[in-house]
Amino acid sequence: MQTIPTIFRQDYCPYPFKISHLNLIFDLDAAHTHVHSEMLLTRVNPGSDLLLHADGLSLLSIHLDGRELSAVTDYVLNDDGLRVLNPPESFTLSIVTQTQPDQNSTLMGLYASNGNLFTQCEAEGFRKITYFPDRPDVMTQYTVELRADAEQYSVLLSNGNLVDEGVLDDGRHYAKWIDPFKKPSYLFALVAGKLVCQEEKFILASGREVLLQVWVEDGNLDKTQHAMESLKNSIRWDEQRFGLELDLDRFMIVAVSDFNMGAMENKGLNIFNTKYVLANSRVATDIDYANIESVVGHEYFHNWTGNRVTCQDWFQLSLKEGLTVFRDQEFSADMIGTDSGRAVSRIGDVRTLRQVQFSEDAGPMAHPVRPDSYVEINNFYTVTIYEKGAEVVRMYQTLLGRDGFRKGMDLYFARHDGCAVTCDDFRAAMADANGRDLAQFERWYSQAGTPVVTVKSHYDTDLQQYTLTLRQSCAPTPGQTDKSPFHIPVTVGLLDSNGQEMPLYLVGESSAQASCVLELTDIEQSFVFDRIPALPTPSLLRNFSAPVVLEYAYSDTELAHLLAHDSDAFNRWEAGQRLATQRLMQLIKSVQAGEALSLDSLYLEAVGLVLNDENLDPAFRELVLTLPSEAMLAELSAEIDPHAIHVAREYMRQQISAHMHKDFYQVYQANQTMGVYSPDAISAGKRGLKNLALAYLVSNDADEQMISLALTQVHEAQNMTDRLAALAVLVRTGDECAIEPLNDFYQDFADDALVIDKWFSLQASSPKTDVELVRQLMRHPDFNLHNPNRARSLIFSFCHANPVQFHAKDGSGYAFWAEQVLALNAINPQVAARLVRVLDHWRKYQPALQARMQDALLTVANSVGLSKDVQELVVKMLK
């Protein structure tokens, strides 16, 4: 393998030139696009040559103040870019380049998709368009003119405000856009093609009218209403919650089917994967609707947290992404509008964090929220940067309160609007606005790993005092052996024997609280509560107040008590998960030992009470009855045995089904949603609980009556949520009963790419689908490895969501993985790198599986032509 240079955070230096303005003219064509660039530069540091980045460009001409430069004496050209030698203090540089969008399979820079042209520039795609300092701290004002054939590219869009459009002398047409705000190159965007839009005029809180547009390909206009409503809700929420108003005359969303990511927050012109725009009841599930709302919100909120204030360098990526994930989480929770709904939203966020990010923290790719080095920045768009980064931001709000957090946000924008800054700048704003010392809190940015908080309790009957002793530790991670104590907020409550909240009086305090935030800053601290008349049951880490692993020796009785009574809905769910996990881990051991399997009645009775409690939100009941995933159980295992995990979890599902069969059937019937489909939280919650009940009812393959019930739901469903859920249940059985409904589903939706993605995915993720069936599905005429959504729907679903088959003992799943990583590496390195991460934890598996995984990793590592994206990951995993 070739040696690839590592970039270090400590080596950051400001760019030596200021670029006050950038004028771009695009002569657009799928085969050959010419880009005319004119930039106005002023030196800010003496004695430097001008370095401009490039990737795969053809340089046609270069002029400095009108003089054509010589490749012999004036500049040096290489694969990474252009060096202009000894430029003057102030000058105008004009460059003409050529690019080939229809040959760009990486989907970075300017590329073609279905006859249209799109850009994706984050993180370093702008260098595929023109020569420029492609780094986030170089902020400039853009004027962009797009020229193209009027029939083939009838719509011409770019950032900012449209200031002129018309017909050129040669019959082509043009559109001129000016973005009045400085931005870095990664936020540049253009779209050209045959598109249609839904548009609305919208009145901002200040009274200013703006134009909102959702652009899609013809035939998809009936699927844009939810995205439009989500955009309007996002704008209004940001005004009300943070006092932030849309700063342009228009805001545009454009949907494209070929896209590496979920969406991109380009200033005023957000480009989205169609998956996060298109929805109606026929083709989209409740989860699709929720995801669209969340992603639309996320990208809109970037307008301030990422665009108006951006990152000094890519090491600060979580400055914008972690903060904006937190904002979209809060938005989604507020859109539900109820306390139980907020809890359901929070539980979903934490499940993702524990299952994916905690796993990342424990593997070879563990890195801090603010990394110290990277080889390929695209590999650091990770759950640590996003989801753990969001938890770090949430801890500010937990420590400072909602009002204190808002004060910190206000100061952050007052200080840094229009600037490229650091995570430390954000922390300083929070500290200064609230008069708090948050120096120790910096360790959440600089130290990798998931802290473990061990809690012990003591009750003094005579003094009526209850003491909680908290101790923190954090395991070594790559490059970091010794960890200093974190600043950890631990929110606690105490329940009496009737399940009522005890008033909390910390020693030395006169006022009582129902919950209080304990600030753990040392390795070990004790907190004493006064006036506790009897031994309580502690409710610890309420609302998951910090991204840590909590260890406390709860008894089954205490967990059942919390599940039944805790006022903190998150901890009610957590108690149920602990009960389930304890039993599952024991079942796994029994499977491995060849012992008879059994499940005690305490757990069954505890979750049965939740299932039948109609006072609880249906969505919450669904979450309590959803067992920890096989991936979560693998994360908790010292040595991973995927087959034992699968057998244990299936046994527990069947036991729950058998014990509560009548209850599930009654819940199924009681939670039908009649009438016109609505994705609102109450209706979606009912459908979720009903479909969970159906999954349990059909978990016994021999029950023909329940299979008939699922078949009936498939045929009679009036929305995609119910049809897909019932179909998934049937496919999971591996029975022939699924063949006809699968074929019918395909025929009904053959022309809808997003639904066919679902068709591929539910087959790939079924535990009855082996690698040979996946290979067979890859030969289907609708499979296309070049389309990231399609690759994810089949290959990623099999490798990520079908552990029992992916980890086949003969290693066939790993050989398949290696083949697909190399095939994708040649097409789209970003997508290939995402697939590499499936084997992050290969060293934790049983020795026989480890050996086969290592063989697959070496097959990739020893291949010729590896991209930086793939090479960086494979090297780290094999160390």
From TrEMBL:
GO molecular function, one term: metallopeptidase activity
Cofactor: Zn(2+)
Reaction catalysis annotation: Release of an N-terminal amino acid, Xaa-|-Yaa- from a peptide, amide or arylamide. Xaa is preferably Ala, but may be most amino acids including Pro (slow action). When a terminal hydrophobic residue is followed by a prolyl residue, the two may be released as an intact Xaa-Pro dipeptide
Segments forming domain Peptidase M1 alanyl aminopeptidase C-terminal: 556-879
Domain Peptidase M1 alanyl aminopeptidase Ig-like fold, chain residue ranges per copy: 449-552
Taxonomic superkingdom: Bacteria
InterPro entries: Aminopeptidase_N-like_N, Aminopeptidase_N-like_N_sf, PepN_Ig-like_sf, Peptidase_M1, Peptidase_M1_dom, Peptidase_M1_pepN, Peptidase_M1_pepN_C, Peptidase_M1_pepN_C_sf
GO biological process, alphabetically ordered: proteolysis
Keywords associated with the record: Aminopeptidase, Hydrolase, Metal-binding, Metalloprotease, Protease, Zinc
A Pfam family that the UniProt record links to this protein: DUF3458_C
Occurrences of domain Peptidase M1 membrane alanine aminopeptidase (ranges): 227-444
Record-annotated Aminopeptidase N-like N-terminal domain positions: 42-187
EC number(s) from the headed UniProt entry: 3.4.11.2
Record-stated family: Belongs to the peptidase M1 family.
Name of the molecule in the record: Aminopeptidase N
Underlying gene: pepN
